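User: I've been trying to design a sequence by hand for this structure and keep getting stuck. Would you show me what you'd pick, starting by listing the structure so we're on the same page?

Assistant: Good idea, let's start from the same input. This is the structure you sent:
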């Protein structure tokens, strides 16, 4: 089977004028999406908020929180029409770069058990499950646990080239 070529893309900081596109991707991707206001609050709070663009089109986004030597991937998503091209890995790599540049030694995230493709991506760059948050996410049938994952010793992993982009 031939490899799928990754389209030409670029990343930049998210701007307020990106919020309609970001919110549309979020709405199309999740049963219980973040609101446009949550994304605006993340920008206002100074969180590293990035968009991945194909040409001028916002094709994905990632939000990171960094403090006290730790980082937390708050949200990362690629639009449905651009999934399967390696763009999620590319965007995650940027968020991990930002975490490292900010001095984070550990990066955390939560992922739904019902999202195994995301979990495989996170594991492929070195994240490991460290616990569960019971009934963390809203779900159609009530609540769903969150798998808590951690990437340890960011600087060492990055220096060794363990994080693929």
């Amino acid at each position: 089977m031939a490899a799928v070529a990754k389209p030409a893309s670029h990343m930049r900081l998210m701007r307020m004028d990106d919020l309609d596109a970001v919110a549309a991707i979020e709405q199309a991707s999740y049963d219980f999406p973040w609101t446009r206001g949550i994304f605006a609050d993340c920008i206002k709070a100074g969180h590293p908020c990035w968009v991945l663009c194909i040409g001028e089109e916002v094709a994905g986004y990632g939000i990171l929180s960094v403090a006290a030597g730790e980082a937390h991937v708050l949200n990362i998503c690629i639009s449905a029409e651009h999934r399967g091209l390696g763009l999620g890995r590319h965007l995650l790599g940027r968020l991990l770069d930002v975490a490292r540049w900010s001095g984070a030694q550990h990066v955390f995230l939560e992922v739904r058990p019902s999202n195994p493709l995301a979990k495989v991506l996170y594991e492929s760059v070195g994240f490991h499950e460290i616990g569960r948050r019971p009934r963390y996410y809203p779900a159609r049938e009530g609540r769903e646990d969150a798998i808590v994952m951690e990437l340890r010793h960011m600087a060492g992993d990055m220096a060794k080239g363990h994080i693929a982009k």
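That's my pick for every position. To get oriented when you compare it with your attempt: Residues 10-159 form a domain with the Aminopeptidase fold (CATH 3.40.630.30). The longest helix spans residues 87-101.
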